[in-house]
Amino acid sequence: MAFTSIGCESKETNYDRASELKAFDDTKAGVKGLVDAGISTIPRIFIHPPHTLSYSAPDSKAEVTAKNVPIVDLNGIELYPNRRKGVVEEIRDASENWGFFQVINHGIPMHLLDEMLDGVRRFFDQDTEVKKQYYTREQSKKLVYNSNFDLYNGSAVNWRDTFFLKMAPQTPRPEELPAVCREGTIEYSKQVMKLGRLLFELLSEALGLKPSYLNDMDCSEGLAVLGHYYPACPQPELTMGTSKHADNDFLTVLLQDQIGGLQVLHDNQWVDVPPMPGALVVNVGDLLQLISNDKFKSVEHRVIANGTSRRLSVACFFSTDLLPKARMYGPIKELLSKDNPPRYRETTVRDYITHYHRKGLDGSSALLHYRL
């Protein structure tokens, strides 16, 4: 079937959204396939309600300066205890008040960051017939490539294609990864795992716990790497790159290119997270908010669509949802007291992820389902 564009919307009387979603999915070409076909108006399934597209930007430069996402410099924390103590305080403040911060001097070399982004570009620039072999909605696959994990659940489709790789705790064999991004992904994943363990140490200390606490809870055991491709959109004012959402993991480490578009919701206002060469964006996930009993905040964020340039990013999710574990996660007992009772019921990670995926990116928090 032909996709319904907004130019035809007023004439449409029997719009069959389910059929259009399936037709798009069946192409196995993703959003990039639409752009490569030369469309000038976006299909109706991509049109978002106007209220979800609003962006209440501050009027003055002073307000913008006051609302910059925190930047944390990790340089020297392994050598100087006082330096580490200061960084822990910065991370505590950022995790409590923003849920987001950028890290610099994190130890991952610039050439590897560039290679990882270039690998994402090479993957999506492959011929559609080559990529089709990876296109699937079966989460059990080593590599999952598709457009919108919640394609059939979400209220509107996002202008984004993604590949998903499970890199830890069981690292795929090299031959199981696409040659165009194989070496960079393997090395980058190793480096992010090392950084993740350090970040969980600092977050443990920020909670007043021993440094190994969150790592001992297996928060850093599992890693999924998602390569996102946001093609330039002919009508960016009508759609989103990624809808408003919070992440369903313990912690996310994001590498973004220099195009921009990531925004975080802070004080009921969308604030840009500006790209910084060599920096990585870190944000608290739902599961860390749950086990910290709301001490740390999993904050909603989104990616706006771009009308002139494609955008690339690599999101690394620390989570154990890929492991068949029955471990229950609830508010950490050492953080609880008479004045700070548990605010969530316990859950397994897999059950939480299942609920999150079933709900889709509908603009509401998946944590509400677990509130006491």
Explain what this protein looks like in three dimensions.
This protein is of the alpha+beta class. It has a single domain, classed as Sandwich (Jelly Rolls). 28% of the residues lie in helices and 18% in strands. The protein is built from ten helices and twelve strands. The strands form two sheets. An eight-stranded mixed sheet has the order 1-2-10-7-12-5-4-3. Strands 6-11-8-9 form a four-stranded antiparallel sheet, with no helix packed on it. Strand 8 and strand 9 form a beta hairpin. Helix 5 packs across helix 7 (182-206). The radius of gyration is 21 Å and the shape is globular. Mean pLDDT is 92; it is low at 6-11 and 57-66.
Query: How large is the share of residues in beta strands?
Result: 15-25%
Strand order of the largest sheet: 1-2-10-7-12-5-4-3
What are the low-pLDDT stretches, counting only 5+ consecutive residues below 50?
6-11, 57-66
CATH topology: Jelly Rolls
CATH superfamily descriptor: B-lactam Antibiotic, Isopenicillin N Synthase, Chain
Distance between the termini: 47 Å
Radius of gyration: 21 Å
Q: What is the helix fraction of residues, given as a range? A: 25-40%
Structural class: alpha+beta
